[in-house]
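I'll show an entry:

:::
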Amino acid sequence: MDWSQSLRLIAPEETLSIAGLILLLVAAWGGDKASRLISILSVAALVAAGAMVAPALCGGAMGPDTSAFFGQFHADAFASYTKVLIYLSAAASLVIAPAFFDRFKAMRAEYPILVLFAALGMGIMVSAGDLLTLYIGLEMNSLAAYVLAAFLRTDDRSAEAGLKYFVLGALASGILLFGMSLVYGFTGTTAFSGINAALAGGLSNGALFGIVFMLAGLAFKISAVPFHMWTPDVYEGSPTPVTMFFATAPKVAALGLMMRVLLDAFGDQAAAWQQIVLFLALASIVVGALGAIGQTNIKRLMAYSSINNVGFILVGLAVATPQGASAMLFYLAIYIAMSLGGFAVILMLKDENGNYVEHIPSFAGLSRTRPGLALGMAMVMFSLAGIPPMFGFWGKFLVFKAAVDGGMIVLAALGFAASVIGAFYYLKVVKVMYFDEPADVVKGESDVWHKLILVISCLVISPLGFLLTKWLGGLADTAATALFHAL
C-alpha cells in the first residue's frame, strides 16, 4: 500500500480533524467570546474540505485508485458528491446559528466544533469501504449529534430531545453492531469487497439475519418507518439551527452510507434486501404523510415531511440500478435546498418580542403582513409537495421513472398515489398564510444570513432550478457510476 497516496486521498478528513483540534484550543483559551471567530474558521474549514473533494467529483474518480488503507476508505466521485452536500449543509447550520443562540445568550464556542466533528464523521461514513470504518464514522457523528440536540440547556425540550436521541441512538447502534458481527461471522471479513465476494456463492441464513439487523440500524439513522419515532420529538425540541442540521447533513450521510453498504457489500444479493427497502420506502411515504396532517407545530410538520421524503428517496434504492442511485442523489440535492429554505423561513418567524413562532395557526394571513416570508414558505411547501413547476417535482419524477424502468411499476404507482396525501398538509400551510384572516403575530426582524439562505434556496427550487438539470444530473450519474465500480 502507498501510504502517501492514502494520506492524499483523506486530505479533506485531515483538514477537518486538524481544524477541529486547533479550534478546540482556541475555544479553551478564548472561551465563548471567541464563538463567532470559531464559527467563521469552521465554515472556512468546511469550504476548504469541499474544494478538496470537488476535483474527484468533476473528474469522475472511481476504481482502485480511489481506495485508501487497504480498501477501508473510498475517495471516489460518489463520496465526493455526498460530502459536498454534507459540508454545504453544515456550513449553513453554522452561519444561521449565532442570531438564534444570541437570543437565549447561549452561543458557545463548542457549537461550531461539534458541527465540524460531526461533518468529519459523516465524511468517513460515506467513504467507508469496511464495516470498521463505517462504525467509526457513524459514532463520531452520533456522539456530536447527541450533544447538539441538548445544546440549549435552558430549554427543557432541548434536554428531552438530547436524552431521547441518545437512548434510541444507542439502541440503534447496538442493533447495527450486532448485524455487523453476524455478517463478519458468516463471511470472515469486514471489508465490503470481501463480503461481496464471500456472498457470491449464495446467502446463508446467518448472513441474511445480519443484513436485516444492519438495515434496521441504518433505518433509524435515516428516520425511516418503523424506526422514525424519535424524529418529531427531536426536531421539535432541538434548537432550530440544530434541527436544520439534523434534517440535512446527517440525512445525506446516512442515506449515502446505506447506498454504499447495500450496493457495494450486498450488491449481488439485491433480492435479499430489496423487499425490506420496498417496505421502508412505502411505509415512510404513507406514515410521513398521514402523521403530518394533524400537526400544528411547524418543526414537527417538517419532521414528518423528512420521513415522507426519505420514503421517496428510498424508492430509487429499491430499484438497485445505477439509474435508481442517480435519481436518489439528484433528489437528495433538491431535498437539501428545500430543507435549508424551509428552516431559514422558520428562523425568520418571530413575534415583536423576538420569540420564535412555531404554531402554524399563528401564520394566518402572513401573506398580507409579511408577503416575502409567505412567498418563501409557499415555494418550499409547493416544492416539498412535488407540485410543478417547482424543482421538487423533478426529484420525485426521476425516482418514479427509475422504478418504472426497473420494472417496479406497482411501487411507482403506490408512491405517486401516496404523494397526493402529502400534498394536503403542505397546502394546508399555504392556505393558512394566504386565505385565513391575519393573526398579525409574526413581526420580528430577520437576520441577513437567514434572508440570504432563503433567497438562494428559493432560486434553486423555483422553475429556474430546471436550468441545473443537465449539470446536476451529470454529477449524479457520475457519482452513481462510481458507486457501482467501487469494488
In short: The chain has a mean pLDDT of 89.
